[in-house]
Amino acid sequence: MNSIQENLMDSKRSIEDGRVSFRLFFNKLLERSINFYLLACVSVTVLVSSTVIFILGKDCFEFFSQISFFDFLFGTKWEPLIEPRNFGVLPLITGTFLVVFGSILIALPIGLFVAVFLSEFSSKRFRSFIKPILEILAGIPTVVYGLFALTFITPKLKLIFPEIEVFNALSAAIVVGVMILPMITSLCDDAFKALPNSLKQGAYALGGRPHEVVIGIIIPAASQRIGAAIILAISRAVGETMAVTLAAGANPNFTLNPLKSVQTMTSYIVQVSMGDIPAHGVEYLTCFAVAGLLFLITWLMNMIGAYFIFAKGKN
Amino acid sequence: MGRKIKSVIFYFLCLVSTILCLFLLGILIYHLFIQGKDYFTWDFLNNFPSRFASKAGVKPGIYGTFYMMALTAIIAVPLGISTAIYMEEYGPKNKWMNLIQINISNLAGMPSIIYGLLGLAVFVRFFGLERSILSGSLTLSLLILPVIIIASQGAIKSVPQSIRDAGYALGARKFHVVFTQVLPAAIPGIMTGVILSLSRAIGEAAPLIVVGAVGYISYLPHTIMDGFTVLPIQIYNWASRPQEEFQGLASAAILVLLIGLFSLNFVAVYIRERFQRYKDND
Fold first, then answer.
1. pLDDT at residue B282, rounded to an integer
2. Mutation target vs A (from B6, B14, B89, B282; most A CBs, 10 A cutoff)
3. Does A46 contact chain B (CB < 8 Å)?
4. Number of domains chain B is built from
């Protein structure tokens, strides 16, 4: 309070005297420098993304000056570490696809059901009990899920499919599904909450049963944001690393059989990093080429997802 | 009649799915506990890693995780909060700021392994910081920066406009209002976000593997330029070995990690419930 009064008096005096007081000058300087400092902090985020694009771009460029773009994108053999080298990225893509597709297949229905339960059936108390559980599931480190897949899920799957390999895409898909489940639930929950209440009340007033209201009214009305949730979850699953590396192995099979060991884009980068990477060898460059592809895919999906969430939909 | 049965089935599907989540968490923890409890001893916490499962421990991992977390917090927290303040209080609302906002949420969604490659190219190779704690922390700082920014923005946004107006009405300058009124009111929310993002950083292994953490280390780090290992990397190392004892060790290390994470989460939730005056709409 004191300083404010002084401030006022200062400015009064400075107006009366026709000279700029030191305090006023100091305050202005402070304001300017704070503004400058904060702007510098903001620019760090811009710097980070431009550096990522620059690094990936530069090394991809170098990579593609050695290996043809066509061979990379459509080759079906990925053997960059052993002679004769083959740089076809398709096995990594199918491996990633297998894990991601399976995980969405598992997480989407369950996530939707949980979100529906939370918004339609659950009491407030039960809701405030379930929400932290989901937060904990989301907060468990991915390497933990990896070990869980390896030592729990795969042995259980072996009882059903005796021919399953120790490392397999199916257990990775299941465990990644569990990991993205909380994300899908909370995004769908947000989507349901964003709907006007009158919509739901109207449907119930017409005598609709919960399943009719949910399937006929709520889900179609929230479809845009549910779509966004799926896309963001896919992007998360594509970038998932440790769980997949532990559960699916490091075997770039060009296959769509989920019982086989596969390698994803992320687990390839881990595999190379576990050995010491020579700074300018072709292994170093393959990492960045794969990462460039990974960046492109996740970036596109995040953009589409964000667009769906923020676009002014017709609901 | 058919409608009634359908609605009952629907209800049970929803209920079963929800209980499945509880069940999953329960079985996950139970399985790890059963697998790791025999290895979870005082020696385990106090020993260095070893080729022999009976002598192996996680001491360097625990120390490494602590150092890493402290340094990451020192780097990322001021930067993140400052950015959030600018975005919410100082920045103009124009299309450039909008682009920066989109950029931040994109960074939050970028796979963590790409941050690892960024750290490898920039900190390890370009700045020549080697495979040190400093390189690792800088990488993790960039990883959690967008998360801290978004959480802090939420906390600052939830402070009512009337507080700012009251400050200005008393003739206070902008930095006075922001730093003595808005920020203190937002601190509990920011703290919660910061703790949660740090607990994410603790569990990360992928970017640190790329930056070059070592699995086997026989000394405790003394300076920030020393090599390092962290708990998740130790876990990964053990888990990727075929022998059963090492899987048990991995589970025991996971128990250590989870105890740390759960206590952090507990603190975060406590701060949120106890001190937060203004909440988001959720």
1. 46
2. B14
3. yes
4. 1
A45 to B107: CB separation less than 8 angstroms, yes or no: yes
pLDDT above 50: residue A211: yes
End-to-end CA distance of chain B: 38
Domain range spanning residue A31?
2-66
Check if the beta carbon of residue A154 is closer than 8 Å to that of residue A164. yes
Q: How far apart are CA B233 and CA A73, in angstroms?
A: 32
Q: Are residue A151 and residue A291 in the same domain, yes or no?
A: yes
Q: Which residues of chain B have pLDDT under 70?
A: 1, 215-216, 218, 279-282
Burial B148-185 (b: 16+ CB within 10 A, else e): bbbbbbbbbebbeeeebeebeeeebbbbbbbeebbbeb
**CATH number reported for the structural domain that contains residue A273 in this entry:** 1.10.3720.10
Which residues on neighbouring strands pair with residue A111, listed in sequence order? none
A73 lies in a domain?
Answer: no
Domain count for chain A:
2
Q: What is the pLDDT of residues A85-96, one digit of tens each?
A: 778 888 899 999
Contacts of A55 in chain B (CB under 8 A): 117-118, 121-122
When CB atoms are compared, the residue of B21, B125, B240 closest to A181 is B21
Q: Is B31 part of a structural domain of the chain?
A: no
- Give the ipTM of the model, two decimals please: 0.89
How far apart, in whole angstroms, are the C-alpha atoms of residue B196 and residue A250?
A: 31
Phi, psi (5° rounding) for residue A79? -135, 65
* Element counts in chain B: helices (H) and strands (E): 12, 0
Would you call the peptide bond into A258 cis, given omega within 30 degrees of 0 as the criterion?
Answer: no
> Using CB atoms within 10 A of its CB, is residue B47 exposed (0-12), middle (13-18) or buried (19+)?
middle
> How many angstroms separate the CA atoms of A264 and A250, rounded?
8
For the segment A135-169, what is each residue's pLDDT rounded down to a tens digit? 888 889 999 999 999 989 999 999 998 888 888 99
Q: What Å distances lie between residue B276 and B156, B184, B272, CA to CA? A: 12, 11, 5
pTM value > 0.90:
no
- For residues B235 and B32, what is the distance between their CA atoms, to the nearest angstrom? 12
Whether pLDDT at A18 is above 60: no
